[in-house]
Write a structure and sequence with these properties.
Blueprint: E1 2-4, H1 14-18, H2 51-63, H3 74-89, E2 93-112, E3 115-117, E4 120-121, E5 128-133, E6 136-137, E7 140-142, H4 149-160, E8 166-172, E9 200-204, H5 208-214, E10 217-236, E11 246-251, H6 259-276, E12 282-287, H7 295-303, E13 311-315, E14 322-324, E15 330-332, E16 335-340, H8 349-354, E17 358-360, H9 367-375, E18 381-386, H10 398-401, H11 404-424
Parallel strand pairs: 6-8, 7-8, 8-9, 11-12, 11-13, 13-18, 16-17
Antiparallel strand pairs: 1-2, 2-3, 2-10, 4-9, 5-10, 10-12, 14-15, 16-18
Helix pairs in contact: 2-6, 2-11, 6-11, 7-9
Amino acid sequence: MTSSRSNLPGRPTRRAVLATGAAVAGVSALGAGPARAAAGHRAAGASRPGGLGASLYSVVEGYSRWPIHRTGTREESAALDWLERELRGRGALTGRWGYDYPHYRWSAEVRVGRVRLPTVPLYYEGVGRVRGRAQFVRPVTTSKDGSDPAVLAAVAEAAVAGADVAVLPTTSTTAAGYPSYDGLVGYNSDPDAPKTGVPTLLVPGRDADRIQRYGADVDFAARTVRAHAYCLTGWFGTRRPVADPIVVTTPLTGWFTCAAERGTGVALALELAAELSREHPVFFLGNTGHELNNYGARAYLAEEFDLAPRAVFHLGSALAAAAAGPDGHFELAPRGAASNPAFDAVPGLAADLAAARFNQAAKFPGEGAVWNAALGPAVPLLSLAGNFREFHTPDDTPGVTTSAEVLEQAYDAVRAAARDLISAT
C-alpha cells in the first residue's frame, strides 16, 4: 500500500541561538563588515566544476533523490538532514524550530480488478477504515493546486449522497498554456478548514473510463494525530544573530519528488543567501508544512519571528521550472512576482525579472502572502512563485522539469532583482 508515516527529528534550537541576538541588534548595515563565516564558506562566484548552472542542478538532484517531500515523513526528515548539511557546507550556522501540527497518517489502495492505481488522499477530508467497492466516483478537471472548486464540489456531492468513500479521477489544467495532465496529482489542504468527513482518494484522470467500466475497490485507513515538525534556519555572514538581517526564505515540502517545484527554489535560495551574506548578514528560513496551507511559515511568523529585516526574499515554487521543446531545449515556464515597494518604485526590477519570465502578479503568491500579511508594506519584500504542467505530480523530476541552463538563467534574474530591491530601499 501507498502510505505516509511520521518519523520526526529532535528538539528545536533556534531560541537558544537567538538568545544572544539582542546584544548585537542593529550593528550591521548593508556594506558593513560583520563577522565572516568560517573559512570553509563557499563564496558566490568561486570556481565551480561545470559552472554555476551545474552547481545549482546538483542541488536539485540532491534534494529530489527522495520520492516524496510531505511534512512528517521519513523522507522529508532525511531531506532536512541533507539540507542542513548543505547550509553548513556554505558556512551557515544552522538550527531548527519546532511546531505542533495535525499529521494525517494514512494508507490507501485503489484497484481495478488486479491493477493497482496510483493514489493519494485529499488530506484531512476523512478518517477511519473503508474496505470494498467504491460507490461514488466522479472525474474532475481542476484548475487550482488547493481548494479547487471542482474537487470541493465533488466531495460535497459525495457527502450529500452519504458515500463512505469518494474516488476522484483528476485531470489538472493548473498550468495555463500547457497541455492538461491526467496522471496522479496532489492537492494542498488546510488542516483547519471545514471538512465533509468523506474519505477522498485522488487517482489519475486517465483511469476514469476504466473505473467507470469495471468499478474500483478501495482499502483505506487514516487518522489525524498531533505531531511535531521543524523549520530549518541558517545564519550566513555572521557567527552571532543580528536584528536586521536580509531574510531568504523558501518552502521545503510538497507532494512528490518536487524537483522543479521545490528543488529549484532551494538551490537558488542557498546560492542567494551565500552571495548576499558577503555584504550583510543573511537569515535563511526553510519552511515545512507548505502543502498544509503554509502551516510551518504561519506558525513561525506568529510564534517565533522577532527580527526587523533589511529585506525579505521569498523564493517559492517553480523558480526554474521549464519544459523541453521538440529540439530538447528547455524554456522557463512563466511565473509570478510581487514586491514591496511596488514594481514601478524599484528601478530595473521588472526588466531583470522578465529576463527569466517572471511577470508581475496581481497579489503576493504562496508564502509571500503570509510574509506580506505579517510584516506589512513597510518591509521590502520580493515574492516569486509559479507552476507548470508537472506541478504536484510524480513526474516532477530533474531531467523532465529543469536544466542547468535555466537554473542559471533564473538565478541571474533573481540575483539582479534582489540587488534592485536592496538598492531602492
